[in-house]
Model the fold of this input.
Amino acid sequence: MVLSSILSTTTHPGDVLDAIADNSLSSVMVTQAAPDTPIIYVNEAFTTLTGYTPEDVIGKSPRMLQGPKTDQAVLDRLRKDLEAGRIFEGETVNYRKDCSEFVMHWRVFPVRDQQGAPVYFVALQEENDT
Ligand SMILES: Cc1cc2nc3c(=O)[nH]c(=O)nc-3n(C[C@H](O)[C@H](O)[C@H](O)COP(=O)(O)O)c2cc1C
Done:
């Protein structure tokens, strides 16, 4: 089912999108599909998960979450998946603003323009604490 196609025309699809992002239990991150994928949006759940506010991260690369124990093989797979237009899903160690480490489980996918070119990448992120 395509969410936007079943929404009432008396509401703006953007209002539903905003409500989902604002209330999501998952961290939501949106980046430009441009070199170094600068962050343009994070929701409140991202701040709860990482300790970083939007002001801390807007314009930076998501790489800022990485550190010594981050798994390079997972990042290589992510880069290849994005280049090939595939959805990425994986886990690795990331670091909060207070430098504490946690296992990030996340998915990244492109949002494309009408010509099919990626405009944004969106990540849905959760801690794997099992
Ligand atoms: C939308 C998006 C979200 C990302 N989120 C994370 C993340 O939560 N943790 C992480 O370690 N890397 C994340 N990355 C991956 C890095 O930004 C980068 O793509 C990865 O390190 C591979 O590129 P590099 O080899 O140039 O570092 C994300 C990338 C994108 C595009």
In short: Residues 29, 31, 37, 61-63, 65-66, 70, 75, 78-79, 92, 94, 104, 106, 108, 121, 123, 125 surround flavin mononucleotide (CB under 6 Å). Residues 3-127 form a domain with the Beta-Lactamase fold (CATH 3.30.450.20).
